[in-house]
Amino acid sequence: MTRFVSAVAAGLATLVVGAAGAQAAETLDTVKERGEVSCGVTTGLAGFSMPDQSGTWSGIDVDFCRAVAAAVLGDASKVRFVPLTAKERFTALQSGEIDILSRVTTWTFTRDTSLGLNFVGTTFYDGQGFMVNKDLGVSSAKDLDGASICVGAGTTTELNLADYFRIQGMDYNPVVFAAISETAQGFESGRCDVLTSDQSQLYAIRSKLEDPSSAVVLPEVISKEPLGPVVRQGDDAWFNVVKWVLFAQLNAEELGVTSDNIEEMTGSDNPSIKRLVGTDGDMGEKLGLSADWAANIIAQVGNYGEMFERNVGMDSPLEIARGLNALWSEGGIQYAPPVR
């Protein structure tokens, strides 16, 4: 009887997994039929995903979702943005509420192997740091023993913070908030001495303070934070589409194809450019998309460098240098497989 019950249970589990996989495999068709990409973003972080007073979203994570919409639907505006806290983000993706999570999310072993999710790549290589009030007179993270520290709940930031202070033999008082905006408000109101987050977020938060010059980002970087979009496991077709949207943007920058010259480049004799923009080969067909899928991305959103610079780079209020996010040929580690 025990063997029979076990066999039935195993069979039911297989049916459930199979049904979930079949549902997940419909994402590309569902998006096409719906005529819209559902994208999970932050509740508001300058440079990454932030709505303005009219409700229009901007940021590098936002632009990536628009690039997916341009590739799949031919129109970068066909996106519905769903603001999510750190605690809500994975459940929203797992449940099918959103098609993509593009929300300053760190790629880790546990998240990649135990949540039923796939990271498609890295849109921003980052690292965790600390921001303090200048009046505190602190110049190093090693001077923070006993400090109260604002941190986001349910994040790798919270775990890295505990690891760092344990290794350094220091104590701290965590002040935990659910949303990034609440964490920033806690810091500015004086509820904590220090705010810890990815360094890109620290610069974004500092830019929105009433007096940005009152805060200093300390030099220490205590973690690796590869940030990138996430999709559900069990749907290789959708995984491939979203993954190659990023790769197309990186290849476009490497090949010198931009939103300004894309029309000219569709007439290029360069074989690599011809495959990218769809004038040669069947790359779009292999993804279940139109031949001009990548050309639409570049024309409507731009290549990776354009997306980076206008949102978080030196052309933005954040003024973050490319650093590791430069192309491999320019001293960084951004690298994409070839389109061929």
UniProtKB/TrEMBL annotation:
Keywords for this protein: Signal, Transport
Entry-linked InterPro entries: Bact_solute-bind_prot3, SBP_3_CS, Solute-binding_3/MltF_N
GO biological process: amino acid transport
Coiled-coil residue windows: none
Keyword Transferase on entry: no
Signal peptide positions (record): 1-24
Domain Solute-binding protein family 3/N-terminal: 36-265
Gene3D superfamilies in the cross-refs: Periplasmic binding protein-like II (3.40.190.10)
CDD domains: PBP2_BztA
PANTHER family: AMINO ACID ABC TRANSPORTER PERMEASE, AMINO-ACID ABC TRANSPORTER-BINDING PROTEIN YHDW-RELATED
Membership in a protein family: Belongs to the bacterial solute-binding protein 3 family.
Name under which the protein is recorded: General L-amino acid transport system substrate-binding protein
